[in-house]
Design brief:
Blueprint: H1 3-16, E1 26-34, E2 41-46, H2 50-67, H3 71-82, E3 93-96, E4 112-120, H4 127-135, E5 143-151, E6 157-164, H5 168-184, H6 188-198, E7 202-212
Antiparallel strand pairs: 1-2, 1-7, 3-5, 4-6, 4-7, 5-6
Helix pairs in contact: 4-5
Length: 218
């Protein structure tokens, strides 16, 4: 795939449609960096409610007709856009959770998104305490989002998405987490007890790393 040509095509669609649709409160494209499939592209759209998904689709259809009123030109554009993608795809819907650290960075380069797909465990506790005292205080983590399954293949899915300025900062953030953990749980016995309960929150996970396309970020 010609990345430059793909980006130019998606930027045209973004500027004429996505950017003008107020019910799409966030969107982006996330490219494979370290994932099982090197052709993978994630297209993400964010809405305030489930109902807004259908309403946004109606607005999108109107914006498309306004942007490409000529049927032949409209058909040609979408044939070109669709040619970049394989016919097969999957759809998933997640609901955001309260544990959020909005992205804050001055970087103009593509950001790194480390996606941890957890399987919810049986019981467990302590997520808020860890989030407040470690995740929020880790300066390498420029953004953090949590999401719970609403529609998709596995109802136990819980996502944690950490945003970094570069790949090296992921490893640095792990070391920083250890320092912050030691600073907060100074009593070893209490710390051990906390993490024993914390470990029950999730029953395994998978990892994937993506990078965004800044010009397509809403």
């Amino acid at each position: 795939m010609d990345f430059t040509d793909w980006r130019k095509t998606e930027e045209e669609y973004y500027n004429k449609v996505t950017a003008k649709n107020d019910l799409i409160i966030g969107s982006g494209y996330y490219m494979h960096y370290f994932t099982p499939d090197d052709s993978e592209i994630l297209s993400v759209s964010v809405y305030n409610s489930w109902e807004d998904i259908e309403k946004a689709n109606e607005i999108t259809n109107k914006l498309v007709m306004e942007a490409w009123p000529d049927e032949a030109k409209r058909t040609a554009f979408f044939e070109k856009q669709n040619s970049y993608y394989a016919p097969k795809h999957s759809d998933e819907i997640y609901a955001s959770m309260n544990y959020t650290k909005p992205v804050k960075t001055d970087s103009k380069e593509p950001l790194i998104y480390y996606v941890k797909k957890n399987k919810s465990g049986r019981g467990g506790s302590g997520y808020k305490e860890y989030f407040d005292n470690v995740t929020m205080k880790n300066s390498y983590v420029k953004g953090f989002y949590t999401m719970r399954h609403r529609y998709g293949s596995n109802s136990r899915d819980v996502l944690e998405v950490s945003v970094f300025e570069n790949l090296a900062d992921i490893e640095k953030s792990f070391a920083e987490n250890t320092k912050l953990e030691d600073a907060h749980w100074t009593d070893k016995a209490k710390g051990d007890e906390f993490f024993k309960k914390y470990a029950k929150l999730f029953a395994g996970h998978g990892d994937a790393i993506y990078r965004n396309v800044p010009s397509l970020e809403k």
